[in-house]
Amino acid sequence: MPIVNIQVTREGTTPEHNSVTAEEKARIIAGVSNVLLEVLKKPLESTFVVIEEVDLDNWGWGGLPVPEFRKLSSQPKSEPAR
Amino acid sequence: MPIVNIQVTREGTTPEHNSVTAEEKARIIAGVSNVLLEVLKKPLESTFVVIEEVDLDNWGWGGLPVPEFRKLSSQPKSEPAR
Amino acid sequence: MPIVNIQVTREGTTPEHNSVTAEEKARIIAGVSNVLLEVLKKPLESTFVVIEEVDLDNWGWGGLPVPEFRKLSSQPKSEPAR
Amino acid sequence: MPIVNIQVTREGTTPEHNSVTAEEKARIIAGVSNVLLEVLKKPLESTFVVIEEVDLDNWGWGGLPVPEFRKLSSQPKSEPAR
Amino acid sequence: MPIVNIQVTREGTTPEHNSVTAEEKARIIAGVSNVLLEVLKKPLESTFVVIEEVDLDNWGWGGLPVPEFRKLSSQPKSEPAR
Amino acid sequence: MPIVNIQVTREGTTPEHNSVTAEEKARIIAGVSNVLLEVLKKPLESTFVVIEEVDLDNWGWGGLPVPEFRKLSSQPKSEPAR
Question: What is d(CA B70, CA C1) in angstroms, rounded to the nearest whole number?
Answer without folding.
Answer: 11
